[in-house]
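[step 3/7] fold_predict: job queued, chain A
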Amino acid sequence: MQSLTQTNDNAALLRPQIRSLTLSVLTALFLLFATNHTFWVKAAANYASQPFAFASLIIGLSGAFIAACVTPSVKYLTKPVFILLVLTAASASWFMDSYGVIIDVNMIRNAAETNTAEAGHLVTAGFVLHMMLYGIMPAALIAWVRIEHDSFPRKFVRNIAAIAAGLSLFVVAGISFAGTHASLTREHRDMFATLNPFVPIGKVVDYVIASNTERNLVAAPLGTDARLLGLPADKRKPRLTIIVTGETARAENFSLGGYSRTTNPELQARDIFYFKNATSCGTATATSVPCMFSNLKREGYSHSKALATENLLDVLSHAGVHVEWWDNNTGSKNVANRVKEVTLSNHTDKRFCADGECQDGVLLDGLDAWLDGVSQDTVLVLHQMGSHGPAYYLRYPEAFRQFTPECQTAEFSECSREQIVNSYDNTILFTDHVIASIIDNLKARESKFSPSLFYASDHGESLGEYGLYLHGAPYMLAPSQQTHVPMLVWFGSEQKAEMNLDCLRKETEGPASHDNLFHTALGMMQVDTAVRDPALDLASACRTSVATQ
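[step 4/7] structure written:
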């Protein structure tokens, strides 16, 4: 027993000892300068003409970080808190530095609602190496050292003095160049939004609070007065509308909108109406999808409001329309809670699926048989995998590898921008085929029902512009590549006969947005309700029939 005790004592002596205050300062400086590359790059550019103000920023933030790290420096709390801060900072810095993302509540919600296959594409060799260097090794060092703690009265006095000193540095540095700091903060809100790890941690707290608040929300009825117009169902063909909810397609890469590459060869040969100036409600699926199907305009949308009221699918159901949602993504984001929802992304059919994900061919596979069974007014929503990154190369079959060389990895640092764009354009080429195939299936059955189709992507994608990749930027800071989305409609012969097509072609030149889906889909199905706004129906002004005006 004595030998074992002596061995333990010798092992403890081999571990370096460090005072708690010293460890707090070192951890603070590590967090500020080792895990904030994105912040400092932005700050250096923004303060380029104000070197003294930049120096005051460095001094002030050093004081603030030291004060923040000294605060939890008490026995039994120091190591767990510091390890958590280091691991959080390392993870957040990877995504900010590699993809240019800004971590906000919507980004965290999108991450929380993803699946393991989608998340797995982000765990690359580069991510693992980054976490080892900036997360695991520093955290292990913190866990290994012995912390020397003072008696509580002495520690309390020293910690308070250190916190006061740090905050004083922060205040003095801020006041000394207050005008410059205030001006640059207003002009470059994205800069302080990347301050790591305290901003991301704050956003996580906001998300948790919001989630707890929203947990017990019950959707209030909407459009219970909805009714189908026109002839009774037994005196006409069933109406059928397919809504294709795209994923990560940006309008800038649609040749329908003027892109130099021919990425829409099949749709160009179909009689579709493409809206060139359409914008999204959000920059991530978790925001855009519920917003698209709500009657809330983008300006009035919030996640809690969407949960607290029914949506387009419910209004259609109130009118007696059969509604289904087929999902090849990460779910309907609560949109299809009260209708039939079919998950296709978990299929194991090797023609379309591998490693927990499926290409959008799986949406087409069962469509023929399903269409043959339609016997009543119906709306089918198809939620695509589309162009979801960073593994663009997995989103299309071999026949659609037209633009080469491709980026055949989720590690963008291993590819040129040309390769990344080539892979992305191949995903658009395949989406073009999917939508055109659906239209062909509908057109072939016009003797059976009166069909129409609406397509819009949920958001766009950055492919290196302004140093940004992927999507999810805060809307007010997001570039057009993330908010300018493709949107189109197709009508069967019966609906076209009731329209002024020249009028509709003219409408495609004007502005459009996700705000239009709710009202346009009701118009397509000839559903009347007090919550439908004809002014937001993209085709309403061009219908010669007054039935749904």
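[step 5/7] annotate
The chain has a mean pLDDT of 93.
The first helix runs from residue 2 to 14.
exit 0
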